[in-house]
Design a protein that fits this description.
Strand content: 15-25%
GO molecular function, one term: iron-sulfur cluster binding
Mean pLDDT: 94
Shape: globular
Strand order of the largest sheet: 2-1-5-3-4
Number of helices: 2
Domain 2Fe-2S ferredoxin-type: 1-101
Order of helices and strands: EEHEHEE
CATH architecture: Roll
Radius of gyration: 13 Å
InterPro entries: 2Fe-2S_ferredoxin-like_sf, 2Fe-2S_ferredoxin-type, Beta-grasp_dom_sf
Distance between the termini: 24 Å
Low-confidence stretches: none
Largest sheet: 5 strands, mixed
Number of domains: 1
CATH topology: Ubiquitin-like (UB roll)
Number of strands: 5
Protein name: Ferredoxin
CATH superfamily: Beta-grasp domain
Length: 110
């Protein structure tokens, strides 16, 4: 399955069902905000899902907590929590980095 980061010059990587999105980003040398060390405590690894949410696993208990607190919207997921659920090669998930969590040393094309 492909993951495309729209506001990161359309960078596309392949993702694995054994890894979270955050782990797959790291394996592909893509820096991503993660203030709590990928423990699901802070929401700084938030990503906006523009397309392909149906190819991602259901909300984790951690994500459900943040949804209930209104800290995650319907089109947002935590990269440290979510994994793909269907890895057929022709599927694509398109995401973007929210402005709030963009890293200063990376050029985004918002």
């Amino acid at each position: 399955m492909r993951l495309t980061i729209k506001n990161l010059q359309g960078k596309t990587i392949c993702i694995s069902e054994k890894n979270t999105i955050l782990q797959s980003l790291g394996e592909n040398a893509i820096d991503w905000m993660q203030a709590c060390g990928a423990k699901g405590r802070c929401t700084t690894c938030k990503m906006v899902v523009l397309q392909g949410n149906e190819y991602l696993a259901d909300y984790t208990e951690v994500e459900k907590k943040f949804v209930a607190q209104k800290r995650l919207l319907a089109n947002e997921r935590l990269a440290c929590q979510v994994k793909p659920k269907n890895l057929q090669n022709d599927y694509e998930v398109i995401i973007q980095v929210p402005k709030t969590y963009q890293l200063p040393h990376i050029l985004y094309n918002d």
